[in-house]
Amino acid sequence: MVKIEENEKGYDPNILPDLLPVYYKRLFPHKPFYRWLSYGNSENGIFTHREISFTLADDVYIRYLSFDSQPELEKEICSRNPHKIDIGAVLSVRPKHHRATANIHALQRELVFDIDMTDYDEVRNCCEGANVCTKCWKFMTIACRVLDAALREDFGFEHILWVFSGRRGIHCWVCDKTARHLDNRGRGAVADYLNLLIHGGENSTTKASIGERLHHSVRRALKIVEPMFEEVCIVDQDMFGNSKGVTKLIQMLPDENLRKDFEAHLKNVGSTSKEVWEAFLRFCNAQRSKGNAVRRMKNIVEEVQLAFLYPRLDINVTKGLNHLLKAPFCVHPKTGKICVPFNPSAAAKFDPMSVPTITALLEEINAFDDKIRSEDAEEDKNRIKDYKKTGMFKGVVVFEEFLRKLESSFKGKAIEVSDSKMEF
Amino acid sequence: MDFIRKPRVKVEKTSAVVNLEQLYPHNVTLYRLPPTEDITLQEFEDLALERLKLLRIFEQAGSRNLRFLSDEWKEHITSEINREGLKGYARLFHNSGSVKESDLQARRRDTISHFILRVAYSRSQDLQRWFTAREMEMFRYKFSLLTASQVKEFLEINKLDYTPLTEEQKNEVKDGLYESTMGQSASKIELLDFYKVHFTEVLDLVKGRRCFLKNGFAYVNSSDFVSIIATKYQSELERGLQVAQRGLPESENDERLVSVLKGIHTSYTGKDYSIDKGESVPIECLDQLSIKSFPLCMRSCHEILRSKHHLKHFGRLQYTLFLKGIGVLLEDALRFFREEFTKTMDLERFEKGYAYNIRHSYGKEGSMVKYSPFSCMKIIMQAVGPQDTHGCPFKTLDPVALKSKLTSYGLSPMHVQEVATFATKGHYQLACDRYFEVIHDTKLDQGIQHPNQYFELSQAVMGSREQKGGTPANKNVRKVVKKEVNSTLLEGDDDELWNIAETQENEMTQKKAAETVKSEWDDDFDISQVESMEF
User: Fold this and answer.
1) Residue B252 lies in a domain
2) Is B211 marked within a binding site?
3) Is B297 annotated as a binding-site member?
4) A biological process (GO) annotation for this entry (chain A) (predicted)?
5) Which pLDDT value is given to residue A216?
6) CA–CA separation, B73 vs B58, rounded Å?
7) Model confidence at A412, in pLDDT bands (50, 70, 90)?
8) How many domains are there within chain B?
9) Of B52, B239, B263, B331, which one has the greatest count of Cβ atoms within 10 A?
């Protein structure tokens, strides 16, 4: 814990421009980064036609960059030291020539999801806005598990990269070929399939629309959400411990009469979150057995649980083929934290508070260098890759593992092709 | 291929009929082959207009919120087709089983007119979207009328090969099918044939979570089979439209066609709100105008901007384009947003992050596209996230919030109830119509389809009142607006309404301002969003 505080305190946004050159030179995983975006050069122009954008100092935003090769990309990153790198689509024309051609369009791009903690503000009491803590991070954990399962089991996607967005959210990059080649309509359909919640905009309650018969994807989400509901909503967030939360719960009931009845019913029970929630469960059961609004009350408890815990997607990000999204391993300019990939199956163990900041990382390499120097002056320090000396190591390992699987899918293809040739 | 297997037709077939049968073998077609025959200009125009009428009937049915392919919907379509006297299409949608020459003629007209409109509607993204949506409705309607053997025939003609799962294969995924096949009872699922296709072939089913999905494959039952074909048809049509668009300059080489092709376009949109009108609306009167002449969606944007000094991305886009449409000049719009935004951020941040965005909406930056103000349909269909401020309030607000909003605008409880009832039933545009009527104390003879249309109608109503039945003043917005601003005394009931609305309004704003508004507007700003929209 002491270390975490150091991280937070140690970073000062004003010195970011001084830190970035060292970070990009010594820590940024240039080669793996290229290996990802080149996809084994399995398709023409997949790397060279990719739009990359840089945000430089003072929010100078440069779009439509593109690079010929790994060394060129590395050179550019290291010489311009962008505060942020965004990844766009693979375009029909080399992005840097975009002014010369009128008919430029996006050919492919990973299917991406963006989940931001601010969308959870109405259901969290621990923090708000840009802040996160281990309590509300559980919302992200659930979101990650629900989405990851759906993407793998329902859509059959295998190459999914989850990345901490540096402050208060997570990004998901689905890199399977089918996903990359989905058009806007396909992305829209996948987004809508995964988006259960209906937000009423300002001042209204978010609801889950799941219908009478539960679709298998909804059922699976419930299997993840249900066991977490008490821990997260009742204990951690103390959701119904205040009148705002109780009103929210009342609003979930399908009609005016039920709402009034429940409100009256609440007068006779205690006011802790747990008591209110249990009263709600009893109330719903009683109403159902009385035969009141049976159809709309059938899944009411499930609806409430989902409304609080189901992933809140920014679906416009997912729907657009050409949307730019921050690249992994960027440094978040406000927090100084690295956007590290993490393993979705260990999402619960991922702790955003302990993600290293750029300051901490640079200190770590320095300390390491000193140690090596004092121990054995002869040792060539470049022999050990710098990121392996630091807290970023874990993130790079996750990334490498993702790449290994991704690349083996291309090799598999190659073998299949040659096998079939051998047969005939 | 054996198209001629109709023993009942005793009359000797003329060669023309045989020819037609070969060209148009089925009622449902994927329109893969463009017609090659010569037709007169008159026929060209007639065919185009006839189809346009038909497509508009489909559109109206949608905006009336009739459920697609429900009995009410079908009834509405049939009666409208008869009212418009579209005999050919009446035939096409009446599946009698036997095929007469008049049926073949109907098919011929169907095909030719489809291709004419395909060219005419390839002009812009918006038109393409509209046309595709309507054509898809028509396609699905026609397909829904087919008998099982006609479907089979259709598949053969179009060389589409689909085989259902065997019992064994079906058993393997039985549980998933029972759980996730929507719209079918368990006993029905037992009997139905299922097809396994890649999920990208049935996006509409995926979107609505209507079928079982596993490992990238969708399991589609035979009554949803149309989805597979429809998706296929849609992508062919979209490709076709792109081809047509590329060929547009050539099609327009022929001057005789230009007027028809372009004429269709304007006769659809009615009005193109993206065109500069040459008059300008000063931003000083936006507060006034927003009370009476702005539809609820824009009034909300305006109020939120005034009270929170910020609008999120899509809210900004929706509102800026609307302002552009009513005649607010770019410089004024910039000044307006700058004044508000800089109350919570420094000028530099506004200039860097947001000014570009506004200039972009006016078509002065980036791809220099002239964006049209959003129509009601677009606003209603837009996804709204938590804390977003765009969208159609009749849809996004829950009934309680909507009612209190309307009450705060000075509507009587009875009127509030009326409007809210439309909204809760999903008739958002009817709710908006009613809201207009109440606010203006008048009757609407046309439905609101566009926020800018709302504005103009409102201006027209007030203008004509002001001039006591003089010539409608909607042509001269600036003049009308100026009068409103300058004269504190408006006439008659107008005056009263203004006052009521205004005092209510002031109370509301004060109340809102009094609430300490937490301002976490730190949404990761992304200018690329704007451009990505039209890509």
Assistant:
1) yes
2) no
3) yes
4) DNA replication, synthesis of primer
5) 95
6) 9
7) low
8) 3
9) B52
Which of A193, A314, A318 is the best mutation test for B, with the most CBs of B within 10 A?
A: A193
Q: How far is CA B34 from the centre of its chain?
A: 27
List the single range of A190-204, B185-199, B275-289, B493-507 with lowest mean pLDDT.
B493-507
> pLDDT tens digits for B213-227?
999 999 999 888 898
B285 annotated ligand-binding residue? no
To 10 degrees, the CA torsion angle through A236, A237, A239, A244? 160
Q: Are residues B409 and B521 in the same domain?
A: yes
Q: Which residue of B has its CA nearest to A215?
A: B180
Q: Are strands A169-174 and A160-164 parallel, antiparallel or unpaired?
A: antiparallel
| Structural domain ending residue among the three candidates B213, B243, B269 | B269
Nearest to B203 among A156, A186, A219 (CB): A186
pLDDT at residue B529 in the model: 41
Nearest to B391 among A201, A217, A314 (CB): A201
Chain A within 8 Å of B219 (Cβ-Cβ)?
A: no
Q: Which of residues 109-128 of A touch B (CB under 8 A)?
A: 116, 118-119, 121-122, 128
> Would you name the residues of A annotated as active-site residues?
51, 114, 116
Average pLDDT over residues B263-292: 64
A185 contacts on B by Cβ (under 8 Å): 203
Question: Is there a single domain that holds both residue B484 and residue B514?
Answer: yes
Q: Is A59 on the interface with B (CB under 8 A)?
A: yes
Of the candidates A63, A153, A201, the beta carbon closest to that of B388 is on A201
- CATH number for B99: 1.20.930
- pLDDT tens digits along B419-439: 998 888 888 888 999 999 888
Q: Which amino acid is at B319?
A: Y
CA dihedral (B298, B470, B499, B403) positive or negative: negative
Q: Are residues B458 and B490 in the same domain?
A: yes
Task: Report CB contact under 8 Å: A251, B398.
Answer: yes
Confidence band of A328 (pLDDT split at 50, 70, 90): very high
Pure H helices in B145-207: 148-157, 167-172, 174-180, 186-191, 203-207
Helix pair angle (B41-63, B255-269), 10° resolution: 20
Assess contact for A66 and A95: CB atoms under 8 A: yes
Contact (CB<8Å) A201/B397 = yes
Asked whether residue B226 falls in the same domain as residue B237, the answer is no
Chain A CB contacts of B176 under 8 Å are 216
Q: Mean pLDDT in chain B?
A: 78
Of B403 and A201, the structure prediction assigns the larger pLDDT to: B403
Smallest Cβ–Cβ distance between A129 and the set B304, B389, B520 belongs to B520
Distance CA B120, CA A142 (A): 49
pLDDT > 80? residue B100: yes
- In terms of Cβ atoms closer than 10 Å to its own Cβ (0-12, 13-18, 19+), residue B348 is exposed
Interface test with B, best of A216, A251, A296, A330 (most B CBs within 10 A): A216
Count the helix, strand and coil residues of chain A and give each as a percent rounded to the nearest 5: 55, 10, 30
- Buried residues in B393-408 as b, exposed as e (16+ CB within 10 A): bbbbbbeebbbebbeb
How far apart are alpha carbons A171 and A347 in whole angstroms?
Answer: 13
The most confident of the ranges A232-246, A279-293, B360-374, B494-508 is A232-246
Q: Which of A58, A118, A199 lies closest to B520 in CB terms?
A: A118
Pairing of the two strands A111-116 and A84-91? unpaired
Do B405 and B521 fall into the same domain? yes
Distance of alpha carbon A251 from alpha carbon A300, whole angstroms: 12
**A316, B304: Cβ pair inside 8 Å?**
no
Boundaries of domain holding B484? 283-530
Residue B301 is assigned to a ligand binding site: no
Q: Is A186 on the interface with B (CB under 8 A)?
A: yes
Q: Residue range A267-291: average pLDDT?
A: 90
Rounded to an integer, the average pLDDT of A18-45 is 93
